[in-house]
Structures
1.
Amino acid sequence: MASRLISINSFAQTVTKMSCLRSPYRLAASASQRNFCCLAVGIAVLLSGCGPGPKAEFSLRDATGELIPAAQKVVKKTLDEKFGTPQNLVAWQRFPVNYGGVQGSVADVSKDGVTANFESDLPAIHKDAPLLWLSGPRAGAKTSVDSVATFDTTTKQLKWAGSAEPAPAAGDKFVIGYGGNLQTGRVVYMKNCMHCHGVAGDGAGPTAQYLNPLPRDYRLGLFKFTSTLTPEKPTRDDLTRVVQHGIPGTYMPSFRWLGDKETTAVVEYIRWLSMRGEFEKRIDDDLSNDYSAVAMEASAKKANEAYQSAMKTAKKEDRPEKPKTANQLTKAALDEFSKYEKDDLPGVINDTATLLAESWKKGEEADSLIVPTVARVTDNEASRERGKRLYLSDKGKCYTCHGVQGRGDGVATEDFWKKPGSDEYYSHRGLHDTWGRPLQPRNLTLGQYRGGRRPVDVFRRIYAGIKGTPMPGFGRTALKDEEIWDIVNYVMSLQFQSTPTKSIVTDHATASK
Amino acid sequence: MGRFWAVFFVASAVIAVGLCWVAPSHGLWFPGTLKGGFGAGVAHSSIGKRIDDLFYLVLVIVAVTYIGTHAVLGYVLWRGATIKAEEKVLFSHGSHSLEVIWTIVPSGILLYIALYQMDVWAAYRFKEFSPKKAEAVAEVTARQFEWRIRYPARGKTLMPTPQPDDVYTVNELHVPTGRPVSISLKTEDVQHAFFVPELRIKQDAVPGLTIPVWFDVDEPRQYEMVCAELCGWGHYKMKARLIAVSDEDFGAWKDKAALEQFDDGFKKPAE
Amino acid sequence: MSTLHPTLDHAGHDDSHGHGHGHHELTFIQKYVFSTDHKIIGIQFLVTTLLMLMVGGALALGVRWQLARPWEYMPIAGDLTFGRDGGQISPEYYTMLFTMHATVMIFLVIIPVLAGAFGNFLIPLMIGADDMAFPTLNMLSYWFMWPAILFFAFALGLGPEWLTHVRGGMDAGSAQGWTSYPLLSALKQAAPGSEMSQTWWLMAVTFVGVSSMMGSVNYMTTIINMRAPGMTLFRMPLTIWAMFITAILQAFALPVLTAAGFMLVADRVLGTCFFIPAGIVVNNAAPTIGGGQTLLWQHLFWFYSHPAVYIMLLPAMGMVSDMLSCMSRKPIFGYKPMVYSMAAIAGLGFIVWGHHMFISGMNPALGMTFMVSTMMIALPSAIKTFNWIGTIWGGRLQFNAVMLNCVAFVSMFIIGGLSGIFMAAVPVDIYIHDTYFIVAHFHYVLFGSTLFGVFAGIQFWFPKMWGRLMNDSVAKVHFVLSFIGFNVTFFPMHLLGVAGMPRRYADPYHFEYLSHLLPLNQVMTAAAFLMGFAQFLLLGNFVFSIFMGEKCGRNPWNANGLEWTAPSPPGHGNFDVLPVVYHGPYEYSSPISGDKDFLMQTEYIPLAQRGVESGH
């Protein structure tokens, strides 16, 4: 399977282009003023003694930092190769990301230049727009449009002068402005999202530490509010919805007026960042079994302790063998690793990419979408009553977290919980999400719907749960769709009940028996 | 050298006046629809138009004063720079009549502005618009860092507390044009301010208070809506729009929004 | 009038090392660090505030940088704090920048440079006293600035985290605007800068208040009790009148701010709810309990801070009056109207605070009241302006840097004053409130007026401080660069305001109706940098002239004031002999002074020759 890596490095051009697009006025006035400003800026830079400044970096996961140095290096190298740096993004074509660009085909090659046909209108093509050849003698090569290119909007033909060897032939396909989407996405992301969600989408931008709940860390590939089934990735629409509507009750504001192009682009960029993060995580998971420096140190320490205690009691003849030190273990691992790197790693990378690509593709498929099989049950007293009973029943068990009155103060919030996959307890009472952060069950009486207030949104929350949180999905297994609708009706009425009726409390007493 | 400085100060004033003169044609003036060749935007609410008129009145008075004082300043600087060595300096401790003149005249002008503008303020706050005359179309709740807006269902009136059939939007305030409407302005957290530049309407949203803001919009289109009171790090992020439409369109929009909001996602299988 | 010697205070506190006059045994520390000499304290204030001016300026340049190149690499800040993010600052850092810029400029530059530096240095010299009434209190007023500076540094996130508990360094610096409106400032969860740094900020403001209060009490006492024989109230230079009125303003307004500050600290630390309404949820913290009102803070704050605007302006007005008169070689035009208008400004200054709150939701009828009083406060300002122009009228103008800065003061004050009329018109204020129009207005008043007045004052009284003149050519270059830089930076802000650009936006350009303003902002930023770097000329000239400046005698400007009869620099006790005052301070080119075009206040002219002056 041919995987193609395309480097996208016309970041600066895109920025200029974007800012010019926004206001025609700016173009007219800027030239001399920009020079004037540059002068002052130059003086300032001179005086401050700083060069062009630091470059933004995709930070690595903590788990990557725990690997043995050689493995760390390989992970970093792989990531740089497949995804690039913030200054120089790489479009790995294995992933289902719409990197942007318009496909065209060569119609005619003459000595005046090249004429190419397009299906649709071209977006404003700036000078030296990158060209990626998909077929013909130049397949895979990157060139650029000559600066004297002209586009005829009626015939949808692009003409440009001159062409280097080997000359393209008629019928060759190419993509113009390849990666534009990702670049626009990055520009939008760095302006609007980065200071909370971090350059790498790790949810650790400079502002993040002051927020509650913390901004989403995309690198687990988990997004809370989706329209898809429990194990599936979110759709583009889900992410777009969150970007446009915000998440009430959190610091995620609504970016309603970002612009369609920008919103689409930033959603692609977030998906790409998430894929990048999850790719790193999966590689880490694979490596950390055998090549984690931290784990090795721990196991060496443990073995040494066992050895020491054995030495105290053991007789001379059956003394245990001295265990390997951490250094020895690391050295052994190092030897093993270079072999692993050569033989297994390419396969692992390939499999991981396939797996990820498949999972994101699957999220977009119609099968993954939760569509109620029945229309919303009429929202009446009877339905709400049924909903209430389910809410308080052992089938739904909603009350354990959300509380008998729906105030988000169920008994589960008073308990200490174990960390997943270990015997350790969290230091704080109450529930935690997959990122290990404390989490409050929603207070349902506030009328605050983080995942959206449409009935179908609440339905989906109950049907598939909230990804990355203890909120489980009830659809298909525990509850029928009609029952979920009853709960939806009940839950959505809680906001309008000033005080819980006495019957709820007595009902609870009977229900919990 | 003294003459140079006299010219220097006069030139600075001339440039300042000139800059104001050319500013409208470079987009550096009121936002709003441009009127004719003059680049100043025209306000899109009746109160905004009166605010603009008042602004221009003050501007004329201020411009005359500014040009006058700087002309005199330039003249006295020039005279002071060109005074001859043998010429005697004017030895004067002041002039009672001049003091009286320049006390009475400015105070007259200032009082005139003060009284004149009262009418605009009163019209806005007490007379022409009032909660009784303007229909409450929405409750606008500012929060860090967005606007959450609640409308009554079509045909119903806005209640102070949420109702099951209310319609919600975020960062877009839909209002009908052509008649005075009011919004209930609230904040969920810190202080914000509701500001629609093209309508010239601004009102702080104060924690703990619900403040009615009334206005009318003359042209159906989208207007940008911003926050004008520091509300934290994301102050600049509160980008919203006021979407003014005709009465029929407003009702139609509300129906559509309600339909969308009460969407249960169920699709009838094709028969 | 009798003159009190400050021996009471000395006797009370400094018994350990006996002294009277001629402090030969003073150690270096006593003489230059913990000095009780008003001149040393004045110079200490001056040097401190000039350094703070550079700090505040640097913060302002940070603000300007962001406005010219939003979300691009910012030098220094980008390297120090945001290296991982490519040097682009965070939005809360921007809010910190403008908050601390205003804070430093107002509390550590403008207020202390006027009252602290010039007030201290000039009051005893100009009224013919040998020191302040309470020298030790005076010393304390300077040294109380330092805890304030330290706490402001903590508020900026510069302290060690174990001590300050400011989580996140400069990124979490105080960021509520200098007005510190609750709830943003009252709830710790409301913003990164609302955490501990805001508490430090409030404590620092309290210390500045304590310092100012000590100064005020001292100035009032000194001016009332320690004038030289013959120095009647209406023979006092306008500088002294201005300082006197400022001291009164401060003494009456400051307690309100201090009380409000303590209430806010109590809200933050002790859980009271003076300013916090019930049921507010911020950042998913527990809902607030309590029934306070945020508008209460605005009333209390502006009850201080509006008079404070005049605290930041009146002394400069007084100083400029003195300098204009001297450099025009002509008596001040309308001395008494000048005094009365200052008094009127001070009086009216207490009843106009509501004009900061026209759109805050207070009773609209109250808005009308405040609007009328606000309109009326423009009147004394106008009278003063006309009198300044009248002073220059027909004079023999000395176009040195002092004069130029003074004329710039007048010119800029006209713009600042006139733009205020737009804001005083409530309906217009609905629109321009919290836009750049306001920013333009107060920079024209505080920078354009006060700071140019201060530049002039530094050059005018520098010879008295060090016995040497500052270099006039360098000062002129500094003036021209500052003047051009200032106007290019701030004049377009009026237009930005009219175009509807709100204040305190880290990135206004993503709004379509503001997107075309970027180029203009870039020009303004370039000018701001020009202006910023021009201040190095001032500093350089200042330091250079202390050691290498042209030496001068007692009265290099041929001025009339008492301070010019003392040696340059004056020794301890200021005057060789107790001065006796015979004239007002502005008798330039008087027909009775003979060949000279000035008449020192101490110069006795036999009665036969006096016909002009009204005797005392």
Note: The mean pLDDT of chain A is 80.
2.
Amino acid sequence: MSGTNGTSGTVTATRAEVCAVACAEAFRGDGEIVAAAVAGFVPMLGSRLARSTFEPDLLTTDGGPSLSAEAVPLGAAAAEVEGWLPFRDHLWLVLNGRRHVIMGPSQIDPYGNTNISCIGDWERPKRQLLGVRGGPGNTLLNTTSYWVPKHSPRVFTGKVDFVSGVGHDNGAHEIRVVVTNLAVLDFATPDKRMRLRSVHPGVTVDEVVQNTGFELAVPGDVPETRLPTAEELRIMRDVLDPKGLREREVPS
Amino acid sequence: MSKVMTAEEVVGSLESGMTLGIGGWGSRRKPMALVRAICRSPLTDLTVVSYGGPDVGLLCAYGKVRRLVTAFVTLDSVPLEPHFRRARQDGAVELTEYDEGMFMFGLYAAAHNLPFLPTPAGLGSDVMRVNPELRTVRSPYADGRELVAVPALEMDAALVHMNRADARGNAQYLGPDPYMDDLYAKAADRTYVSCERLVDTGDLLKEGPVQSLLISRAQVAGVVEAPNGGHFTDCSPDHGRDEAFQRHYAQAAGDPEKWAEFRERFLSGDEAAYQDAVRAWREEGK
């Protein structure tokens, strides 16, 4: 596999950087709300990149209960703090609604129902996972996006074993996008089934279809996911993720 | 009036079959010294109410849990709790699985002596399917919304771990998040506080601002001084999570033979023996 997925001017972006920008794009237009990117380094980087560039009013944390005065590098504590968001206030925000969360599903179905609770029968699971966490409330009441670092038919499955996050056929507020290591997916179809929005540079439509365990809506013309700008690359590499944690999550 | 007790006295006041709330969140500020004392006791058949971490894992490993009420069990930096997984996969524990916000409303309801509190969280999800006893209510106002009536999470007793407390039972947190510990204290019939350090009442405000006095003595039945008693979970600023030891725990917990060794080495004696064994283990690693 080549790490040279695309070029922007004279700079080459890695797949992880394309994914982080796709996660940042998920927050475009959100304004002054909390970006709660709990699913991993890439979405966390994406939320902070959005705040550092086109979505400056976003509120972001340092990974703990501090709302940082500026977007802080991954793994760093906030040097300056503008607010406090303990767990109870996250749960308040779920009902309040001014929050967009990116979660990581173990399974996701065509309507965006997701499972992080258990694999197999709930009564006696084959593999116990985390439990539902805040998934039911998040998805019913907040804009939700998903991050899947390894796009596979095991994750993209026709039916989830347990609905811990509700999809569009179960009352979801808005499942905006699903960003994976291969593509960006959304629900912009008449019946809100999952659709392939764009493939990352170097990925074919067929590759995405092969790695999805259900029939995906595929438009006739699937664009490429946009590349990071030179400025976005600079911010990711020099400011927000100088240690390159993003590359561990999506090996090039 | 001093409410100072030993961990053994706290556990001695509990009974098998009780419903027990445990404060903290995941692998953060868990009353581990009290949990370890329960593991050493004959208590059994407990219903445990917890945003679960290694407290739930250890109690499952010792066969203490009949039913668990939770939204998750995690070690945070290690996503999955091996003992809890095994207990679920073996069918050894019953589970009441709620959304995190539903769980909080259950605590709020119990703290306020309300039979339930309404919330939309949970609707549409399989939480409703696997908790068939849950009822919904319809708003009597113009919106007419259907909401989940989350029943009060009533508890016979609750255990929380705080940074400071006085002998009367006033308890203070100095870390960045209160979690839900005040709600447990208000919701349970009686609450036991373990703390990193007992201080004189007059010194509490030397430790932190008045808002850090999270739990009032009116809600507290007993106080235990347990230095490093949150170990290996995070109890900042007194001690962060002992990540190396937590990894050691998680590796041992995933393998019956290693777990037997772990249990023998760290958990066969009292709390002082545990703390000594951890210190010795850390010295070895240097």
Note: Residues 102 and 145 of chain B are 17 Å apart (CA to CA).
